[in-house]
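=== Structure Prediction Worksheet ===
Name of assembly: unnamed complex
Input type: mixed (protein and possibly other molecules)
Chain count: two
Listed entries:
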Amino acid sequence: MGNIYGQWMCTHLGSGGQIAKLLRVLGTPEAVFRCSDKQWRSIEGLSEETRRVMSELRQERILREEERKLARVGGRFLWWEEDSFPKKLRNIGDMPFGIFVQGKLSEENRPCIAIVGTRRCSNYGAEMARVFAAELSRAGVGIISGLAAGIDSIAQGACLEAGGYTLGVLGSGIGVPYPKENWELYQKVKECGGILSEYSPGTAGLRHHFPMRNRLISGLADGILVVEARAKSGTLITVDRALEQGKDVYALPGRVTDGNSVGCNHLIKQGARLVTEPKEIIEELMYRYPGQMYYEEESEQLAFLPERNSTGGCNEKMEDSISLVKNLRKSKLGLATDEKIVYSLMRLDPKHFDSLVWESNLSPQALAVALTNLESGGWIRQPTPNYYAVRME
Amino acid sequence: MFCCIYSFAVHGIEAAKISVEVDVGNGLPCFDMVGYLAGEVREARDRVRVALKNAGYLLPAKRITVNLAPADMRKGGTAFDLPIAMGILGGLELLPMDYLKDACMIGELALDGTVRPVPGVLSCVNEAKQQGFKEILVPMENAEEGALIDGIAVYGVRSLTEAVEHYTGTDAVPVKVMSWKPEEQEITLDFGDISGQFLAKRAAEIAVAGMHNLLLLGPPGAGKTMLAGRIPGIMPELSFEESLELTKIYSVAGMLGGEGSMVTKRPFRSPHHTISVPALVGGGQFPVPGEISLATHGVLFLDEFPEFRRSSIEVLRQPLEEKKVHIARLHGNYVFPAKFMLVAAMNPCPCGYFPDRNRCHCSPDQIRRYMGRISQPILDRIDLCVEMPPLQVREMESGVHGENSREIRRRVERARGHQRKRFGDSGIRFNSEIPASALKRYCAMAEDVREILRKAADSQGFSARVYHRIMKVARTIADLADSKEIRKEHMQEAVLYHALDHKYQNM
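=== Predicted Assembly ===
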């Protein structure tokens, strides 16, 4: 049923500060809704907008409308005093008075990690986001992010594929997927995980909402992993919030010359934890949540791919190079000779079909056959059409 | 006296028989023309009168009435000048009437009596033959063109006087046409000129073999235009029927070379993206073929595809499907053939450099909107789509070139042969034309081959539309390999040339 008066307040009185002022004097949301004009006019420090809302919008029909809107998107409203309101959110300084939810919230005793990063990630960032999200999910960790393009949605998508739990925190109201292209992902997350927003259903994703919602992302998590971030990234705002909240910050290092890793490398310099494997995060969480996670020791070290030396030769034997990639639970015996040749040329940086023709000396037809087989076998993927990269997850 | 001479009016790329009826009688001298005539036909009055005078005929003061029947069909053009003049001579009994029985002719008259060339002579002569005429008079400059039609004697006349002499007894010899020999076409633009671009070259080969439409995506300078220009070079030689059809189209468009010879080279039409819709598909008051018809049996290359007006692209939908274009006018409906292969080229994003992260700064939304300028129904008719990578200087200088056009053309010709055998008289000419209902029949494949397609559909996430297109492409690849069945390696290659589908852009 939910607290309809609380919902009304959160929908129309926006700023937490105004809500706090009213509650301090009048006590409960219902009282705020039903009090007489004389009672509220005497309160000091109310904004113009608040005054307008209090004088014009305290009507039964508006309450019913809010109820209907919420029902239409299949969501529910949680007032901060309710039991099911996430405890973690009560601990942050500027906690929201109420939240709108679709799907289910994480259990209190489940560890959660926020995975964030730039919207325009490289294939390296994308693959790393997938690997970390999937591995953490399999260990029982929930993944929290903002459903934004790039790292956010890739991590959340990978989590769902691995069968884990993910929560999407929106800068718009529930029912309004932002960005639009992520509509399908939004639906899947709603069904298998949860969607959360402090904005009422139907609210558009305005610019200033996003820094605000980032505090919720970090607030709900036990730690935050930054996969790729540019120099002036919005991701860094999320990190600031996390630090204010006393959360752990993990970052993946990147090449010094890569613009996408400038933010991450900077964070590491400032004291963020440099991680190169999901295992490191999982082990830390296991201390805090004993008995809640499933983890097998035998996971292999994350891949490093052989670099060609300057004369064009390969430092490793071709056979060895294939064995270095992590997800080789699959048998490499099944690969044909051509496929092994092509696979050894694969990197995280996508290569066009033509480059592979030059490098492998195979005919275009033979290369095509090898690529199609490798792709359906899960060894490689096409981040963009006709460009191929190794697949790690 | 009443005299009737036959002539022909071009309608689309065909011609219709017109009766030029002339009556000369007593009454107030005048010269009237009727029969739903356009402006330039009406002007024939003055041209004919002066031409007759300069040819030495003095018109007595009689009442002359000319009717062009059927009177409810709108007539345009200047080809009726000659028959009108001859009809008047017949009506005035200056020419024996029985000589003019079953006479047919076309030609414009100059004021001095010279006969000028007109467009569409090939179609007119063809129609004359169909109508059972034994001989026809045409302007001398169009004579060779007209003589291409067997079964009717074509006489070229240079002047009104010569035309008269033809009927008054002097023997005129019909024009002989050079026998049509498919000259060994020298390939000036060769695939061997292109260094690298293996995927795109192979895609072009497949496209030509099955007459699939092709979309080339790539940054500026990748070589899209260079490749497109070389595509006609790997198409098989034109057959006589194809050449004839093309010649008709070019004749009607007034684009045949001065010698009036047949069109023997595959056309490559590359209109600029500011082209108007009528110029692209055909139109005008008396519709004239547009670029899509001029590209029949050849390539229509639309470079900078998204820059074309949306209306221009959308109007291609029906011709792409039906291989012809219908143009309706108040006075009649016209049908032009449009059996072209579409090659479209575009950048993958507004700046042109996607997916190069270092150079492309377009947002995903910008890219989506840019690609969205081409509607799904148009994409549905493009079976092959390839990304061309940016030119690598290292590769360009390596000197390795791959096959030349002649070798590729040989494979293509064999593949076309397989298709002819397969489709016979069914009305389908190429693999690209196989309708969804006939896919099962023509693209049968073993279960393990189908499994490859299914797996690719899952991992790349494409729709049923794309699924069907890939089946057709696989059929063409098998034909190029001279294989009766579609084998695994054919399907494994086919899935590479992903056909585009907006919903499943995995960007």
